Amino acid sequence: MPSPGQPHPADAQSRRELAADAWNGLMLLGKKTIIVLTKFMVSAGIIILIARDLDLSSLKADLLAVKLHMLALAMLLLFAQTFALCSRWILILRAIGVCLDWVAGWRIVLASAWFNQVLPSGGEAVRIWMLRRQGIKWSQTLSSIVADRFIGLLTLGFLISVGMPILVSRIQDHVLLFAVAAIVATAYFGVIVLVTLNRLSARMTAAIPVRIMQFAALLEAPLLARTGRKALFSSAIVVHLLTVTACYVLALGLEAGLSALDAFVLVPLVIMAAAVPLSIGGWGIREGAMVGALGLVGIASDKALAISILLGLGNLVVGVIGGAVWLLAPERATYGAERADAAAPLHQHHYANLDEVRRTELPR
Predict the structure, then answer these.
(1) Residue 164 exposed, middle or buried by CB count within 10 Å (0-12, 13-18, 19+)
(2) Residues 284 and 42 sit within 8 Å (Cβ to Cβ)
């Protein structure tokens, strides 16, 4: 028993634990801050590098001279994209056995659009948080987010592969062409591997890292769903086609001379580049990719940069609408999931082993 005046051992242990938690929290906050600052510097750095070689007065003139009805149409297309995004996500949720009201799903998608503009990976975090407040299980929540991202990239690869024969005539750099083809081929090979992993024997799967098996389990139900699969992949393709169409409309509004065929072939490459999570909201990387891609068909750099900036501003407008939806969202006032489970860090909810992954899988 401690002598008078000495702290109780349990109190000392509690203080040490609190100090350790506080230190870990500071380290996590510092890490996130570094990531945000790095992405901000990447966005700003690329834009500065592009703008350095351009006539800024010409860029300003292009931005001010855009036809307003074309700009409005492009923004309308980007807003319509939220409906296609919601449809894709709802179909994924249905494939894993979750019935979410369409209006609630659209509200969550819109709210996530705002956080995608202001925070790295903020949209996914908000979708997880709001879906949990609908009472959806962690395993199903994570599966829907992972599958939504993966299917989006998969259908983007499909569009690139469809345009590849035309792309060959546009790209003279064989190294770049090979890189694009290799990325698409790797994506499809990865899909084939992932959907066949759970059909391997236990001895073979034991040699595969458990995280890979977990990832495969999260994707299997949406990818192999027997009902709604055509609608799922169709809505995923429509999402990208709306971005392509918005870029084409902006090019018409700027009189940039971009044909519909070239937009269909080149803009998916820009979308793929902007999907790399190295900048804030895709800014910077999207602009660099747009200038490079449209330059292949003779579009002036200032015109291409203006198209990309207006596209980004259109997404920002949709994000602001999503911010208003977020402020009015009923999920912020209700709590349908268990508090302790929802409050736990995301990384604590991964599956402990492969058997647990398989137990959480739903019948197809």
Answers:
(1) middle
(2) yes
CA angle 67, 72, 76 (to 5 degrees): 150
First to last CA, the chain: 61
What length does the chain have? 364
Task: Give the residue among 57, 242, 162, 316 at the shortest CA–CA distance from 250.
Answer: 242
Span 193-230, pLDDT tens digits: 776 776 777 777 777 777 777 777 777 777 777 777 88
Digit-coded pLDDT (tens) for 305-360: 999 999 999 999 999 999 999 888 887 765 444 443 443 443 444 433 334 433 43
CA distance 91 to 100: 10
pLDDT in tens, 142-195: 888 888 888 898 899 899 988 888 888 777 777 777 777 787 788 778 777 776
Alpha-carbon distances, residue 242 vs 85, 131, 170 (angstroms) = 11, 26, 22
Selection from 96, 341, 344, 346 nearest residue 217 by Cα:
96
Could you tell me the sign of the dihedral formed by the alpha carbons of 176, 178, 179, 181, in that order? positive
